[in-house]
Each structure stands twice: as structure tokens, then as C-alpha cells.
Amino acid sequence: MEQKKNDGILKWVLIIIAAFFLFIMVIMPLGMVVAGSFAMGFKYYIASITDKYTLKALSLTLRATIASVICTSVFGLMAAWAVTRYSFPGKKIIKSIIDIPVTISPVICGMIFLLLFGRQGFIYPLLDKVGIDVIFAVPGIIIVTVFVTLPMVFREIVPVLEARGTEEEEAAAMMGASGWTIFTKITFPSIKWPFIYGMILSASRAMGEFGAVSVISGHLRGLTNTLPLHVEILFNEFNTTEAFAVASILVMLSIALLILRLVLQYVSKRKISRMQKATA
Amino acid sequence: MYVTLDDVNKSFGDYKASDHVSFSIEKGKLTGLLGPSGSGKTTILRMIAGLESPDSGNITIDGTVVNDIPASKRGIGFVFQNYALFSYMTVEDNIAFGLSVQKVAKEKISQRVSELIELVGLKGMEKRYPSQLSGGQRQRVAFARAIAPRPKLLLLDEPFAAIDAKVRVELRTWLKEMIEKLGITSIFVTHDQDEAIEVADQIIILDHGRVEQSGTPVEIYQHPDTAFTASFVGNATVIPDYHIFSHFEDIHGACTAVIRPEFLHLTRIGEVEQFPNSSEEGIVNSILFRGSHMEIKVWVRGSLLTVNRPLEAGQVEIGEKVHIFIYQIFVTTGDKVYHLKNEALYDDSVVI
């Protein structure tokens, strides 16, 4: 009895500490963003977020995000398939190398590409001849964003594929199913949710990416500015209200992804429980 | 012969999974590939299926060499060890898969599926997913899925390994009946000799990738051809030197012998004995109650022999001195097996 009472107190103490922490670290700052962006009135807010440079930055961020999601999906599926379905020398090393983009600091990622494609880089003369600008241009932004988000889908689906083994695919192949049928009917249904989850993770990372992009963008307003970079520039120019307003766009995008994630989690959970529901 | 393997070889690095394997299987028969783990039995099954390809040698099915025919075109049904049911499909869709891949008309598929569901006794479970089924039910689905496209040959990889002991015996009988009813030529792989002896029409014994012996369960059990078969089949005790027991013919150069419980008869001191002069003395080491009989381990001249004793024959005690009469032994030398009977059995008339 005594034990139970203590448990009750402990429970509430822990909940209150966690809630307090959450309030200080998450709710309050987010509130500040909202409050800050409306500091000079609703009209000014609308004007800030529909500003020409803001819209350009938003468009660049969205393009980089879409490119990232596509690349991580295609690459992730192919790499995961290769790593889990075939055995070849160096497989373990490849699996570790794939993780590098998320383990090293984004600034360093940016530096790598700066050195690779920049004027000192050995690829530069080649690019120069063809007339493609990478550094301080849109392609560079997209390349680094793709780079930092590349392993997201791979990391989510490899454990699932490894746990499943290859027997189901083998059985389907024995019955004469084509590779495409096997993939769409047998393999993909089992990795669908981790796959979508990996896409969402890569999208949120791509939208918020600052370090790597900052190194490579050159901060050309209206040309190579993404939303996070734009926020920084506005803030450095003491345009606090505008900075907050632009930041609120990013917050809304993140919240939208969060909601999407929750909805998908709910749907997948319901589907799984329906599959496993013991029918007596 | 319906399925023939002719000098088939397959190696994985240093490990020879199939070493000059040749055997034939008759149409309509249920054949068991029996061997310990690592004997290459699963590899041979997978080569017949086309899931592995042999390094050399020919595999013939129904008169056609199938070496270059892909697995999907061989017309084979395969039941995997863990069934490999499609976990994101219902029972119905699992069974229908092979037919729908072949683009069979929808009505024909649903007709065949309901026919099979009826056959394997899973009516009412059509809409369930594999995760909602018991082990035995999953096996039935795997079986129905394998035979749905009417294969010419059915292969089963350790079909009972994933099922608990209680259901296993029941399923064995069920599977044998099913296969007999359908008349489909079948090959299954097992490491369990009871399973092979009970279910198969023909047993092929494998060890280290080699065929040790092939024959009916009775032949395999009663007339082992090789030392390995003699020691692998039955509840065998291997005796390093059989000369410690008198009353057996001396085979030149032979030492090792195999003794099974049914070769022995145990009598307590004072009980009536048929061959008192030819029996050995032994000390009871352990007694195991087996339900229908007692399994008694007895030290006889430095060897621990296993003997069965009916319950009604009366209790023995651990440490008790008993008499053991050895009716027969399998003496093995190199690749030969001699079936020796106790000489007292021939001298019977003289003793009286």
C-alpha cells in the first residue's frame, strides 16, 4: 500500500519535471517565435512572409527538400536491397560508410563539397568547361542537402529487411513471380512504413539544414538563400520581426511533417493490429 | 524413374554439400532424404528445386535435364522450413499467389483456392493473416500454396521442424494421407529418423554429402549397408570391439559393432532364461520410464548398452546384477556391415 502511494508521488514528480523541461525548452521558444513574428502586427507579418526574397528562399528550400526525399528514397531502396539480398566482400564497410553523412558535422560536409567543386578542387576545371556553377549556386545547395539526408531511408529499412530474411521472396520466385511482382507484392508491403518514415525524416532534416548549406551557398539573397539562411541574414540585419516571421514558416512546415508522421503512425499501427488481432 | 540425380557435385568453399550424389525416385512415391545436420540434404533438395545449381552432374525430372531450367519453370511446389508464408497476404491470397502469377482466370483461381482450403481443413480462415495462425495451420497453408498450381513434384524442407512435438505426429499422418490422396511425387528432408521411417515410402540416407544407402524404411532399418547407416538408424550403441562378447563369429579385421535395444534381452537373476550359458552379466546403471516400457542402461563388459523391458516383466533396481542375452549385432568394417547372430541360437538343440 505504502509502496503504491510512493509510486504515485514519484510518477507526478517525474511528469512535472518533464513537462517543465518541455515548456522551457520547446513550448516557450516556439511561443516566442509566434509572438515575435506578430510584434508589428498581422499586416507586417503577411508582408514579411510574402516578401520577394522570402518566397525565393522558400522555393529553394522546397526544391532542395524534394530532391533530398527523391534521392534518399531511390538510393535507400537500392542500397538496402543490395546490402540485404546479396553477399559481397566489403559489405560491412559499405554499411558503415553510408552512415557518414549523418555522423559528421554538417559544416564539414559543406567544406568537403567546397573543396571538391571549388576553384581549388580537381573537378572545377571540368565543370568550368561545361559551364556549370556548383559552389555559390543552386546545384551546390541541392547537392549538400541531398548528401546530408542520403542515408535516412536506408537506415530505416535495412533492419526490417534483415529481420525478414529472403525466404518469402524465394518462395514467390519459385512460383514464377517476376522481380517487379515480388517487390510490389511481397517486399514493399513489409517496408512501406519505415520507408515513409525515412522520407519524412529526410524532409525535416533537409528543410532545417543550415551548416552545410551555409558553407556552400555564399548567401546570395534571392539566389542561393534557403529559409534558415534567410532567417540568419534578417536577424543579423536586426530585422528581428521579419526574422521571426520567416522562422514561423519553417515551424509550420515542421509541424505539418510532425502531424503527417503521427497520422501515418496511427494508420500503420491500426493496420498491424488488425493483422495480428487474435480471432478466437 | 521420375527424378534422377546423376553424379551431382556441389561445394561451398571447402565444404562438400554434395559428393558424387546419384539416386532415382519413382513417380508417385514419397521419398525422405535423411541425414544429420551438415549432411547436404537441404542443398540437394534446393538443387532439385533450382534454388541452387550443381557444380557438375545432371538432374533429370520426368525425362528432361533441368540443370538450365530456372526454378520457376520446373513445375515444382516447395514447402519451406519456416513456411515462408507471405506475411502481408491473407490465407486466401497466399494460396492464390502461384495461380495469379500465371495469369489464370479469376473464377478458376477462386474455385481452386476454395477447393484447397476445404482439402486442408482451413475453412473459415480464408481472411486471416499468417500471424494469426498456429504452427500446424501455417503448415497446411504452405502445403496448399505449394500444390495450388498442380506441380509435378512437391519438395518439403524439414516440414515438421517448426512444429511442437505434440502436433508433429498428427501432422505427419495428415501429410502422408494428403500426398497419397493426391498421388503427387514428393521429396522431403528430415534429420529425424522416426519421421522418415514413419512417413516415407523410400528413404535416402545422406552423410557428408554422400548417399549412404537408399531403400524402403524396412530395408534401411533391418539391413543397413554401411557403418554410418547402422549407427545412425535405430537407437544404436556403438561398441569399439565386439570380441569382448563371446558367441559371435570372428570376422577378420573387424572390431566395431552396433547394438540396438531390440537386439538384447534382460533377465533378472533367478528368472527363467532361454540361454543361460550364453548370456552376459551386467550391472544396471539407470532406468528411464518410457510410458509403454522401461529403457534400462546396463554396463556390460565396459560398454553401456540400452535395453528395453516391458513394464509387466517386473521392476529392476539400479546397481542390480542382471543377465543380458545378445541375439544379434551389426559388425561394421570399412564400408561393410555383417549381420551376426548369437551362436547359441544355432546351438539351441545341442544345449538341450
Describe the model.
The complex is a heterodimer of chains A (280) and B (352). With 280 residues, chain A is an all-alpha fold. Chain A folds into two domains: 37 residues; 236 residues, Orthogonal Bundle (MetI-like fold). Helix content of chain A is 80%, strand content 0%. In chain A, helix 6 packs parallel to helix 12, helix 11 runs antiparallel to helix 14 and helix 13 packs antiparallel against helix 14. Chain A is globular. The model of chain A has no long low-confidence stretch (mean pLDDT 88). Chain B folds into two domains: 221 residues, P-loop containing nucleotide triphosphate hydrolases (Rossmann fold), CATH 3.40.50; 115 residues, OB fold (Dihydrolipoamide Acetyltransferase, E2P), CATH 2.40.50. Chain B is built from nine helices and 19 strands. The mean pLDDT of chain B is 89. A six-stranded mixed beta sheet of chain B has the order 6-7-8-3-9-10, sandwiched between helices. A five-stranded antiparallel beta sheet of chain B has the order 13-17-14-15-16, with no helix packed on it. By secondary structure, chain B is of the alpha+beta class. Chains A and B meet through helix 10 and helix 11 of A and helix 2 of B.
